């Protein structure tokens, strides 16, 4: 009992001491504040160094240079007390990357919506034919949807990580966002390497058909036939699809490499490398997402019959003649066009196309 | 809600899983074999054991025509097995809540590799199921529900990897509990019955003197 009372008195004394300390601190700080206000009111520049520690911290920031000091702690960046480039990176992320990236993505969606209102769905002019051509094997469909599902997951989780703070916090609050952000970060890091596997599979399977050919440039110069009504001849893949493929491979490689730099900090990369990797990763990803939004638009609401090949493996013969006529004409001449009934039979009842089966190429 | 998921629902789902699996295995075992009156030309036991293990190595036709299924199948099953029994959070959970026994967990890098392998395998296998005409025809709702449930359990487990937020752990646990309840009444039972299935075929063929 006596000990308890002593403890209570001790605690009360501690509280009193705390209040006293706070009061002294206020009294000590007040003259400086008054002095600063007085200086400002007299027009005297207020940049008087009142705090001698400021000079020390300016030195610690190493005057915008990255200098390694010495430390007993052995590790990457252990000799750097404050990374001078951190501020530049943070400012770029908050003031340029997020607003410009956001406007770019919204701009792409608005542009496609306007284009759809103006042009509508691109229909098959001759209507659907009673024949089809085998466009993609099971394996090709498989790896396409594999990379598509991985890409969608990474894009959504990445956008939440990048834009969540300005966009989601005002809507769902900080607590819920912290949970979603943590989940997205873990999921993004774990699924990221799968994109490498998917991209390698896509590259090996489709690279031959995506090498630029004669006629590709004229397709590009004539707007791919989407702008205007004039028909533009094209191969198995047109110039737009080939460019998207190479963008996916090249920009995708940048995104993958920078992603590995970010999630595996075990190769001696310091903070400045991580910041650089983050910038490359984000810019590359926003670029890829913008292009893929266009790809999804054409495949879904933009063009009649475009997604059929990736859904069923077969495409309509008239669609193929309108959009890939050089390939379609050759395939038809070789007797590869088959009736819709036969396609239904092949897809639903009879035997399957063996995996890794061969599609007649250009 | 969290207490319910962590307490009564966990006990219920574990009970359903254990009793359900025992019930399914016992019903298969008591169904018995048809009596074979022919003179045995070989050993049924040897045939059964041979079939159980030899089926892990696929026939040449399978390796050429079903390469994706084969590779994806091994990636998924081995990855999932490693995650289930050797991921650090699982080892701790099993020791604390089920057996009281603990064993060495795999290192973090091995966890990442296992998770990547399991995800690649499962996504490819499910896509193959829906895209290939034959597997699409053979698949029913049970196949899709089983695949999606396993995928969701794996995904939520990975999303909760930071182990910093209780709601993420509870979502993962809730889905794992739903999977445990669903397991005995689905084709996921092949995790236990594959031994009996292979053994039965192997024994029948072994008795007839066929090296199957």
Which helices and strands, and how do they pair?
The complex is a heterodimer of chains A (362) and B (212).
Chain A: H1 2-41, H2 52-60, H3 85-119, E1 131-134, H4 138-206, H5 216-221, H6 239-263, H7 271-302, H8 308-312, E2 314-316, H9 317-323, H10 325-333, E3 338-339, H11 340-348
Helix pairs in contact in A: 3-7, 4-6, 6-7, 9-10
Chain B: H1 2-6, H2 8-31, H3 44-54, H4 60-65, H5 67-86, H6 88-98, H7 108-131, H8 133-138, H9 141-159, H10 166-182, H11 190-207
Helix pairs in contact in B: 2-10, 3-11, 5-7, 7-9, 9-10
Can you describe this structure?
The complex is a heterodimer of chains A (362) and B (212). Chain A is mainly α and 362 residues long. Chain A folds into two domains: 2-50; 85-348, Up-down Bundle (Fumarate Reductase Cytochrome B subunit), CATH 1.20.950. Chain A is built from eleven helices and three strands; from the N terminus they run αααβαααααβααβα. The longest helix of chain A is centred in the middle third of the chain and has 69 residues, at 138-206. Chain A is elongated and about 85 Å long. The N and C termini of chain A lie far apart (96 Å). Chain B is mainly α and 212 residues long. Chain B has a single domain (41-204), classed as Up-down Bundle (Fumarate Reductase Cytochrome B subunit), CATH 1.20.950. Helix content of chain B is 76%, strand content 0%. Chain B is built from eleven helices and no strands. Chain B is globular and about 65 Å long. The model of chain B has no long low-confidence stretch (mean pLDDT 92). Chains A and B meet through helix 4 and helix 11 of A and helix 5, helix 7, helix 8 and helix 9 of B.
